[in-house]
Design goal:
Helices cover 33% and strands 26% of the residues. It has seven helices and ten strands.
């Protein structure tokens, strides 16, 4: 599913975000990426959905090297990856339904199928009753659930999230993590960058610890101390 070989990422300002890392994540795994701010977690996530490219090394997603994509291939590649951000990135002028359906409209999915799939994911994240609400009428947790629904409405095989509970209270954060568990149980590979060690330890999933731009630990299961 995801393979990185001797990957280094150096930005134009000279900052090294990742330094010669190698990691492999199998299909249907649930993996947390943890570490202090600036360690390289977000860079690792961005490499997975090809927002950025490695300076050196190889990143292989679903058997394909992300360096070798032609420009026209990138949108099709990303259709099979659901991406969730800490700041939600919802369109404020569109309703919950419209924010989610927009993902399907750009792929010219038939209207009847759009409605079916949108309400399926709304039911999964517990927001059927908020379908006509605008983002500013939602709580932070509801906005994040909308963002998750938008990310999974295409039934992606891979879901990545960058600090998805960073702006949420502990109770809501646990509810969001329960949704990610269900997504994983339905067959998707889930990779989450997070600071929430208490929740991560409760989840008891594989955890990759990034420190000083390198992989310090790769814990299959069990408590994490950093």
């Amino acid at each position: 599913m995801i393979k990185m070989f001797n990957v280094t990422k150096r930005y134009e300002n000279g900052i090294i975000a990742l330094d010669n890392i190698s990691v492999s994540i199998d299909k249907e795994e649930f993996v947390f990426i943890v570490g202090p701010s600036g360690a390289g977690k977000s860079t690792l996530i961005k490499l997975i959905y090809r927002e950025i490219l490695p300076t050196m090394g190889q990143v292989i997603i679903n058997g394909r090297n992300i360096n070798r994509f032609k420009k026209k291939e990138i949108p099709y590649f990303r259709r099979n990856i659901g991406v969730i951000f800490q700041d939600f990135r919802l369109i404020e002028t569109k309703t919950v339904f419209e924010n989610i359906s927009f993902t399907l409209e750009v792929t010219e999915t038939p209207t009847k199928e759009i409605k079916r799939r949108v309400y399926n994911v709304l039911e999964m994240v517990g927001l059927t009753h908020k379908a006509d609400a605008l983002p500013l009428q939602l709580s932070g947790g509801e906005q994040q659930r909308t963002a998750i629904a938008r990310a999974i409405v295409n039934n992606p095989s891979l879901v990545v999230a960058d600090e998805p509970t960073g702006n949420l209270d502990p109770k809501t954060s646990r509810q969001i993590m329960d949704i990610f568990k269900e997504i994983n149980m339905r067959g998707a590979t889930v990779v989450i960058a997070s600071h929430a060690l208490d929740i991560i330890n409760e989840m008891n999933k594989r955890t990759i610890v990034v420190e000083n731009h390198r992989i310090k630990k790769d814990i299959k299961k069990g408590a994490v101390c950093i």
